[in-house]
Amino acid sequence: MRKTILLTGGTGYLGAWVAKLLLEKGYTLRLAVRDKHKVEKHQFLQEIAKANHARLELWEANLLKQNSYNSAAEGAEAIIHMASPFTLRFNDAKKELIEPALEGTRNVLTAANLSSTVKKVVLTSSVAAIFGDNVDQKERGVKFLDERYFNQSSSTKHQPYSYSKVLAEKEAWKICKSQSKWKLVVINPSFVMGPALCKGSDSESLAFMNDLLSGRYRMAAPDLMFGFVDVRDVAEAHILALEKEGAEGRYILAERNASVLDIVAILRAKYGSKYKLPLFKAPKFLLYLISPLFGMKRKFVKRNVGYPIQLSNDKSRKQLGINYRPLEETLKDMVEQIEIDN
Question: Does the annotation mark 65 as catalytic?
């Protein structure tokens, strides 16, 4: 009989793929949701569960409500904690990003501590907990960034999303070290791309792709580099971290390191002039001037534009055994879904 897994954030862009894999593998899935009566949020998972003769349970819980995960955790063999805000559009960073990420982690891991059954917690963090700005790599004087490093450059005022991720992950490790009942494994994905399971997803990844295709950066694109990884590979990594006895510590996930212009080149090679793709690389001095129009702060431009980044995926390949989908396939599947939805 398959184990019972408690999943938070299971209706989101990434979490939905994890939920799908768990249901397809026959796990009993306890899905933590804020309001189980909002059927439209989880109906697609109900259909996946039915098709796979799997058990899907709905449990109401809230990241900011103490003890709301306790009942759901009792009887679950493991917790996959994915619920955390991912948005670059906010009014109050502390209230909208930092408090939900930090308090949510505390509440979920407190539930793990109180549970008599939980033996493992898989936490979704981010490479944002590894580094805050691309220039961090140069300032550290290293050829690549791996799981040894923690973000030291972000704050409430500069890169608050990244700050929320490093605070939450450090808190998780602190709580983990204070007990011996359960093991913690952390997944640190880079920029997650690929198709969404549910229509109408408000993912920043889909917003980024739509901006590229629609001509928002038609004249010029910023010289920004990221690690990129397929959403389906990230979901698979969570399952491998759950199931593999030897999984431990942190795992950076990145199929490759690429710039926005590298993405544009892949799209242009596949689709030619079908979309209003960027034509040139925007000069850094110009970005200083126009950055407020695109929601970028000048400090972000200064510390990220023009700086390469190299993320090591060696540990994820060797210990988890991930075979990454090529970025070309990820982008193709993503664009095809956007075409269907539009």
Answer: no
